[in-house]
Each structure stands twice: as C-alpha cells, then as structure tokens.
Fold:
Amino acid sequence: MVEATVSSGTAPRFARLLGCEDVEPSGPRPLAEGSALPGFHVAAADAPTELALAGSHRFSNYALIFRLDEISPQRSRLRAETRAEFPGLKGAVYRTLVIGTRLHVLATRRIIVAARRRVEVER
Structure:
C-alpha cells in the first residue's frame, strides 16, 4: 500500500527534480531492507509491525516511519512519524515551503487514509 501511494504518477520525476538518492522502484518485493521507492529506501522492515523509510535530496535528509499497533484481535492502529533535517539556507527555504504550508502533513495523511480505505474494503 505504501509503495502504491509513494510511487504513483509523477513521483519518479519529482524525485529526480529534487535530486533524491532513490528515484525508481527497485529491490525486493514485498518491501524489505534494500528496497527503494521514488524518494525513499527501506531503512528497516519488521513486518508486520514497522516500516522505516529514509531518503535525502539536495535540501533535506528525512525519514518516514510507520508503526502498526494491535489494539485488540479486531483492531489495529497505524501511526506515522516523520523526521527531517534541512541543512543550510536552501534547506531552510525548503523547510518553510514544505513544513510551513503543511504539505508534509497532507502527504502523510494521504498515505494513512489510503491504508484505512484499503483495510475497510478488504474486511
């Protein structure tokens, strides 16, 4: 589900534009350490409870970590944690554009909402 959301449409082109380390999907599937997506590589995968994605480009070094907590046999909670560093003046400007406009919140929320919808359809 993460791969479908992160790799959709213009993601590879956007990753190239930003100068990301990872610009194309590659590596093992399902996602595992060594897998890559546009803008990210899998830093850790402890299926089914945690998936840590990391990446970097000319303005930032970042991570997106998903954790799945079992609440009961019938319910789980998906949490997403983001981390980022924005070095230098260009990084500060980029941070203002991405964090200041809340674009990162919208992008992360999009992934979580897509996961919820998929689970609800599969029930």
